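Let us work through a complete example step by step.
Step 1: write down the sequence.
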Amino acid sequence: MNPNNDKHTSFGLVRDMLVVPQIIREFDADRMDETAAAIAKVGRLLMTGEGSSRLFPAKSVITTARRRGWPLSLHTDAGLQSQEYDLSDWAVFALSNSGRTAEVIQLFSKLADAGHQHRYSLTAFADSKLESLANQGYVLNCGEESAVAATKSVIEQALCYHALLEAACGQKQLASRLDRLADQVEEALTTSIPSEVVDRIANARIIYWSGRNDGVAEELTLKTNEITRKCADYLEGTYAVHGIEEVMTEDDVVIWIDPDPGSEEKFEQVLGQGVGLNIVAVASRETRFPTLQIPDAGDLAAFVQMAAGWNILVEVGLKLGVNLDKPERARKVGNEFTG
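Step 2: predict the structure and record it as tokens.
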């Protein structure tokens, strides 16, 4: 996307995306240190929310924690399913931009009634219903979003979890890395995408996203529905070559986030040659497929990959002529608490 092109910046969604590098640079990595100390004592954290408030923020930090060997038990599930769990010896952190998401409010009400003392929240607005049910509530600094699809809030939510858990494990590094990460995200957002790649994706029957279970491809699947109005599906890991090829057609496309080098040949054989569909890669290296090459951010790569995915979706949405800000049916608050 081009920050100097009115065709792009006339949409609030694009403006929200383009401000993300500034949000990263100005992020306060120390604001949750008190809560981090409390979570460290508990040793277990459930991260909950619905939709975009859970997928990328929770799953990306769980992946980072496992790679870096952080000594905490971490889990994520949506608010409704989490109500079925015994959480008496877990800290629980709920994310909801509106602070009015029904499922997490129901969960926190149940925990509060049971005397649970480690309830934490992060919302986009102060004095929300969810915050009133938390032992400690925090408010995002990114401000209200201009479009239905959540973007800049998702990145700040993920930064909050990353800073929180680094602090809980005594391994604080994020603050010193923010400027470089902001530059890398900006590059991924503004890299020009070849018109033939945009056309290929825009003309697809179904847009499949493939990649690790770290929230990136799954969140971009949701954003595909909201931003481009195209049918999309998430294929975890190498799921794309384990049976679903039976119902794929040559009119489909697979966008593969950070392909595993050892799996590229199999994807080409099964999907490229077998099905006849197109594969597009997003990676920090060259691949055998048409590739949107992005900077290598190490264990923060998920943030850069997300920005690259947004870039693709904006270009596809513009190609299709849709209103990027206002889907016809999708709502800013999925299931709003009304009790």
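Step 3: interpret the result. The longest helix spans residues 301-320.
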